[in-house]
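Aggregate trends can hide what the representation actually does to any particular protein. The sequence in question and its structure tokens are set out directly beneath this paragraph.
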Amino acid sequence: MTDIDVPARIAKLPLNKAGYPVPWFVAYIDGEPDFRVIAPGTIERAMARRLCWICGERMTGPTSAFVIGPMCAVNRISAEPPSHRDCAEFAAKACPFLANPKKRRREGNKPEHDEPPGTMITRNPGVALVWVTRHWEPFREGRGYLFKVGAPSRTLWFAEGREATHDEVMASIESGLPILAEMAAKDGPEAMLALSRLVDEAMQLVPA
């Protein structure tokens, strides 16, 4: 992470024992940050006060940035609120899970907490997408919230802490689409047609 520029707002955050900045939303368990767990109430505070999901400072300006995976680029749904663009880019480059395609989610000794809304795809997509947009909207899903992201003003793809290649993005999309197709198939032919249209739109965002 030493060769990645750290935004000033990120530099204010506390560090964990491994030297990584602890995002604002992270819950502390027995005095230690657990990056897998969202602190209670942070989603609601981020929405109400327009706070950056990563640094926790107020966002201004016309655009917001979401850190999402390729499948979220298809359905245009994020499980997390938006961030400053520079904070989002830092997360996409520096987060150990997002920057390392071989990294797997740690589920062992995970504390009990509310499950996130929606259907979570637990795989590591291998690439991360910073989706910059002027429009987004939260909506209720179960006991929580999801976020519908509007048309992007810019998309930035990352892999292994650098700009992702066309082939890397395509490999991630192609390996993830069967998961979305299986979900859509359960909802019938109309859902499959809708998915096909969304995939066509997402393919226009793949880097050359």
Notes: Residues 166-187 form the longest helix (22 residues). The two ends are 27 Å apart (CA to CA).
